[in-house]
Write a structure and sequence with these properties.
Structural class: alpha/beta
CATH architecture: Alpha-Beta Barrel
Pfam families: Polysacc_deac_1
Number of domains: 1
Strand content: 5-15%
CATH class: Alpha Beta
CATH superfamily: Glycoside hydrolase/deacetylase
Number of strands: 8
Keywords: Hydrolase, Metal-binding
InterPro entries: Glyco_hydro/deAcase_b/a-brl, NODB_dom, Polysacc_deacetylase_ArnD
Largest sheet: 6 strands, parallel
Helix content: 25-40%
Bound molecules: zinc ion
Protein name: Polysaccharide deacetylase family protein
Distance between the termini: 32 Å
Organism: Niabella ginsengisoli
Length: 206
């Protein structure tokens, strides 16, 4: 079970984390988790370029190591990058030290102070440690659900079109699992919001 639209009460409880960008401008913040991936990431980069869109890629350290040339492409195209742990750890299932060490390991490949916890799951203690280390912990406002094999590509695209608004941080995945839904929804989302005058921006570091 997951929320397509993050409820306000959740944002209030975890108000040290970034859930959306406060703005009156027509701006959206697309994010792509779990890459780089040899097929999905180049696809995303190509779509973004068509719409002159910038985005943020929350990468896994192990994938950066394996697909370094693709990682360099992301940076060269002017997008932001962020740390998503080295091995996609679930913050509720591992010890504090194991979690932080895994993020430190990923940080040897990923030079960024933006962090997004896999599954959105992070202990309060780990959250405090990362904030002390000057990380910006980036959650989201709208979850496309692209990873969910039970939803159709049309539903995935509708999730974003219906829920995103000024300053929304939107989650997609550049991964094998999400490719079917993402590759359908992303071009439609770019097209729809561009036609409404929205600009797609990357997240700023601290
Ligand atoms: Zn992830």
């Amino acid at each position: 079970m997951y929320f397509v639209k993050t409820p306000a009460w959740l944002k209030v409880i975890f108000n040290a984390y970034t859930w959306h960008i406060r703005t009156k401008e027509r701006e959206l913040y697309l994010t792509f988790d779990d890459g780089p991936h040899p097929a999905a990431t180049p696809f995303v980069l190509e779509q973004l370029e068509k719409f002159n869109a910038k985005a943020t890629f929350f990468c896994l350290g192990k994938n950066v190591l394996e697909y370094n040339a693709i990682y360099e492409q992301i940076i060269k195209k002017g997008h932001s990058i962020g740390n998503h742990t080295n091995n996609h750890l679930n913050g509720w299932n591992v010890t504090h030290d194991e979690y932080i060490n895994n993020i430190d390991l990923a940080s040897t490949y990923i030079k960024s102070d933006l962090f997004r916890p896999p599954y959105g799951r992070i202990s309060r203690k780990a959250g405090r440690t990362l904030l002390q280390k000057n990380y910006k912990i980036v959650m989201w406002d709208v979850l496309s659900g692209d990873f969910d094999a039970k939803i159709s590509p049309e539903k995935c695209s509708a999730n974003v079109v219906n829920k995103a608004k000024n300053g929304s941080i939107i989650v997609f995945h550049d991964s094998q699992k999400a490719f079917k839904n993402m590759s359908y929804a992303l071009p439609l989302v770019l097209e729809y919001f561009s036609s409404k005058g929205f600009v797609f921006k990357s997240l700023k570091r601290n």
